[in-house]
Amino acid sequence: MEQVVQQIVGGLATGAIYACIALAIVMIYQAIDHLNFAQGEMAMFSTYIAWQLMQWGMPYWGAFFLTIAISFVLGYAIERAVFKPVHNAPVLSHIVIFIALFVIINSMAGFIWEFTIKPFPTPFGTKPVLGGGILSAHGAGMIAVTGIMLVLLYLFFRFTRIGLAMRAASANPDSARLVGIRVGFMNALGWGMAAAIGAVAGIMIAPVVFLEPNMMVTILLYGFAGAVVGGLTSPGGAVFGGFAVGVIENLASLIPHFGAEMKLTIALALIILVLTLKPNGLFGRKIVSRV
Amino acid sequence: MSTPLLSAKNLRAFYGPTQILYDLDFDMHAGGITTLLGANGAGKTTTLRALSGMVKTAGEIRFDGKLISNKDTADIVRLGVAHVPEGRGTFVRQTVEENLQLGGITQPAGQIAADMDLVFTYFPRLKERFRQQAGTLSGGEQQMLAIGRALMLRPKVMLLDEPSFGLAPLIVQEMFGILRRLNEKEKVSMFLVEQNASLALELADHAYLLETGRVVMSGPAKELSQDENIRRAYLGY
Questions:
Q1: Distance CA B235, CA B191 (A)
Q2: Residue B220, phi then psi, degrees to nearest 5
Q3: Is B74–A181 a contact, with Cβ atoms under 8 angstroms apart?
Q4: Measured between alpha carbons, how far is B78 from A68 in angstroms, rounded to an integer?
Q5: How many Cβ atoms from other residues are within 10 Å of residue B118's Cβ?
Q6: Which of A59, A195, A249, B75 pairs with B102 at a CA distance of 20 to 30 A?
Q7: Distance from C-alpha of A145 to C-alpha of A262, rounded to nearest angstrom
Q8: Strand (E) or helix (H) holding B6
Q9: How far, rounded to the nearest angstrom, does the alpha carbon of residue A109 sit from its chain's CA centroid?
């Protein structure tokens, strides 16, 4: 029993990271209707920026917030420079660009910072905070930081005018234009925010998986699983999906003999299962076009 | 005569390689209601979409003296052009309140509350439905919401695309009464596209008749409503 509790709590910690990635994926999906394969690499690159800033002597939280700001600008710039021109291009063009971004960002990080694995600091320490080592201090910190970020995002989208404008632009771009919203600008803001969210996820998970150019590849897969489980049209669903995948993955490792090795398989099986039974995800909405 | 509020010269519009509008010329003056009549597929909706920059056009469109042809839709809207689109363009997942807020999203935050109260004086039903998701409203209520949302922009001109579409006759009467009051009291000029020609000619002061993308007749609404051909083809008596 104690083992189960431990796995659930631990699953919430990694689930928080999946939730961030899933949310970032959904935000970009809402803006341009495509899955951003390069989301994980963008987060990885941001994490390297944070590492570099700390190497140059910046304190942890200074580097943390500056990295978020830089990531926002980079995400915004990628949309304006790369995706705005191909706005009306067919799906395949988008996919090719995503793959290209994936490879470019990955090799750029390797070129600048080398492919060797680097340790990444945690501001929370590694001592267990709950009895019996159920949760490490860093795990608790991960849950707290992402929790705060998710609440702030919710408040932003729910209560600010620009948040409302961004929701309108993604829900109904034509009508949004007709009330004077600059939809392209809102899409770019969405990219910026997705990149910033990814940066938080990268920085938080780096002490666990260590810093290297491929650190986000499997995490991105879990993030996809979370987004698909929750529904690609539902930001709240994506967050729930991320946490759910984290917990399920950890519980799976309790299965004797093969559990621990099959964690990733189980995440992928979950994507297929949900897509088969509920193609729009648990909280997604069916797109009905009325005539 | 003063310069027109909204005018088009040699306006042509295209969907891909297909030309929809052929050299339209029209003027509308501030304070007036102009209607564009025509059968299905004549190009009425396309004309409105051309005016608010939603289709590719050639030729000249001027609003308030400024050239607006092929400008960005959001920029045209910000000049005071409120387009109430075909199918109403409701943000269905947002509440009535949020829809109205979106209507005024380009306006200073300080005036939103007062402007919403103004909308409620014309559409008290929207106040009752304030917190409801807009997709759950009836067709008539959604049309009210679309016009209310347009009003939040404090527009100089409203482009109305078939405001009677799909509504019960009684509601249509009510809606057109409200449009007249908005025109008289709030000084909103209107450019009205309507299939219901007799209603439109009753409300408008000026009318244009569109056939397969060309203006074939124009003049004061009264004159057109007495024209033999129009009566037979569009009014049905």
A1: 20
A2: -60, 145
A3: yes
A4: 33
A5: 16
A6: A195
A7: 29
A8: strand B6-15
A9: 19
Averaged over A126-151, what is the pLDDT? 83
**Cβ <8 Å between A183 and B74:** yes
Residues B103 and B85: beta-carbon distance below 8 Å? no
CA angle B217, B222, B228 (to 5 degrees): 60
Helix, strand, or coil (residue B13): strand
A153: tokens are 């995002």
| Tokens, residue B92 | 């269905």
- Judged by DSSP in three states, A76 sits in helix
Q: How many CA atoms, within 13 angstroms, populate the side-chain half-sphere of residue A95? A: 3
Partner residue opposite A178 with nearest CB, options B52, B92, B101? B52
User: Do the beta carbons of residue A195 and residue A27 sit within 8 Å?
Assistant: no
DSSP A261: G
> What are residue B161's DSSP bridge partners?
B193
Q: What is the DSSP string of A226-257?
A: HHHHH-TT-HHHHHHHHHHHHHHHHHHTTSTT
Q: What is the pLDDT of residues A151-186, one digit of tens each?
A: 999 999 989 999 999 999 988 999 999 999 999 999
Q: For B98-152, how does the pLDDT look when each residue is reduced to its tens digit (9 = 90+)?
A: 999 999 999 999 999 999 999 999 999 999 999 999 999 999 999 999 999 999 9
Count of CA atoms in the C-beta half-sphere (13 A) of A246: 29
Give CA–CA dist A192/A200, Å, rounded.
Answer: 13
Among the partner-chain residues A165, A171, A179, the one whose CB lies closest to the CB of B93 is: A171
- 3 state SS of A185: helix
Cβ within 8 Å, pair B94-A165: no
pTM metric for this prediction: 0.89
Interface contact A161-B73, CB threshold 8 A:
no
Main-chain dihedrals φ then ψ at residue A130, nearest 5 degrees:
-105, 155
Phi, psi (deg, nearest 5) at residue A138: -65, -40
Please report the ipTM that was assigned to this predicted complex. Answer: 0.93
Q: Which residues of B touch A175 (CB under 8 A)?
A: 85, 89-91
- Rounded CA-CA distance A19/A113 in Å is 27
Amino acid at A145: V
Query: What phi and psi, each to the nearest 5 degrees, are found at residue B22?
Result: -120, 105
State the Cα angle at A72 between B106 and B93, rounded to 5°. 45
DSSP H helical ranges for chain A: 2-32, 39-55, 60-78, 91-113, 137-159, 161-171, 173-178, 183-209, 217-230, 235-252, 263-277
Say which of B54, B77, B109 has its CB closest to residue A179.
B77
CA dihedral sign, ordered A73, A75, A76, A79: positive
For tokens 């990271």, name the residue.
Answer: A17
Q: Tell the residue number behind the tokens 């495509």, with chain if given.
A: A34
Looking at residue B233, its pLDDT comes to: 77
